[in-house]
Amino acid sequence: MGDELITLKVDAKELALISSLLQQPRRIEHTLRNRIFVIDHDWCRNLIAICQQRMAQHDYSVYSFSADIYYENGRVDKISTREGFDAYVDNQQRLSVGVDMSMSFLVSFGGSNEPEKQDIRVQAFSDESYKFFLKRKRKSLDGSIISSSISSSNPTWAEDMEGHVSRHIDGTLRTSLLSRLLFYLDDNGSAIVSVSGPLVIVISFVSIATLGNLPKEFDALETDSSLDAISRKINIIIEQYNRIPHSAWLFVSAAFVVVLLMILRLFSDSLIRRFCRPFVIFNNHSKTIADRHFSKNEWLTRLLFGLLAGIPVALLTAYIKGLFPF
Fold first, then answer.
1. Of the candidates 145, 126, 120, 154, which has an alpha carbon nearest to the alpha carbon of residue 49?
2. Helix, coil or strand: residue 133
3. Residue 116: beta bridge partners?
4. CA–CA distance from 25 to each of 121, 152, 220, 232 (Å)?
5. What is the pTM of this model?
6. CA–CA separation, 14 and 117 (whole Å)
7. Pairing mode, strands 116-125 and 26-33
8. What is the per-residue pLDDT across 118-145, written as a single tens digit (0 to 9) for each?
């Protein structure tokens, strides 16, 4: 029996799909967790425009497009065309919590007559549990995720596209010293608590030993609240603390910072929920909630740092004025 040649007629799209499945394309994935971000409809449309702008350097066509928009009440709006996504409008009073957007292109690289399938996928969820319709075990919204995945048969093209997508994602991240500190405390809370226990005892012992041995002159000025008396009290306290070796001072200062971090750790869940909330905005209701959230956070952050700096000063002032019974 001789060899037989069978010829099958397929169009360019089918050929590209078969080719991409056989070639085992390279995939680049980039995932960020526990980040603060604000992603809206315009951000997604700008990302699509960036991808198509990079594709314009080659002969290409859009093979497929899909976008799934998730809401807190469990609803998912599935869109299968770019035009439908551009025209999408939601006027309901429900909170949008995630978006999963995928694009596939047929690209002819280097003048090749055979187009190859290239895939781009971007996901963003204010809490990853919404993606799986799971009930959150904790009330805090610190399970956010934003990720990108690029599958391509051309490594150079994939690296270039990944760079543009990553920069677009980085542009929506909102980071601050407070958010980084809170997430760090939330992840390493047990270690901080175990170290802070002995340091609390050390700080208490040093403070009692120092302030418990103030000279009689200080006791004589206890009921005097004049400016001259307050000045003399400050000088007495400073002289008393100057007797402590510098090495001990460094240790006590470090211990005080760790204890302060331990206190923040005890309230980290509430603080993360208050200051580190990401948003995926696809309607006016979600935008109103996000605007209100960031507006409140601005003055609450100032208040928090003001308290952290002001409480020690207030306690020292009250002690000097003799407002404590010891």
1. 120
2. coil
3. 107
4. 14, 5, 84, 78
5. 0.66
6. 10
7. unpaired
8. 899 999 999 888 877 655 544 444 478 9
* pLDDT exceeds cutoff 90 at 81: yes
Asked if 55 and 115 touch (Cβ cutoff 8 Å), the reply is no
Enter the DSSP assignment of 74: S
Average pLDDT of span 177-195: 65
CA dihedral sign of residues 44, 46, 49, 54: negative
Distance CA 79, CA 41 (A): 13
- 110/171 Cα distance (integer angstroms): 31
> Which residue ranges make up each domain of the chain?
12-174, 182-276+283-320
**Residue pair 99/280 in contact by the 8 Å Cβ criterion:** yes
> For 226, phi and psi rounded to 5 degrees?
-70, 160
> What per-residue string of b and e applies to 294-308 under the rule 16 or more CB within 10 Å gives b?
eeebeeebeebeeee
Q: Which residue has the tokens 């992840």?
A: 187
Q: Report which secondary-structure segment, H or E, holds 79.
A: strand 76-79
Q: Please give the average per-residue pLDDT across 296-325, as a whole number.
A: 62
**Distance separating alpha carbons of residues 300 and 118, to the nearest angstrom:** 46
* Higher per-residue pLDDT: 54 or 113: 54
Percent of the chain with pLDDT over 90: 27
In this predicted structure, the answer to whether residue 100 has a pLDDT above a threshold of 90 is yes
CA distances from 89 to 156, 278, 285 (A): 37, 21, 12
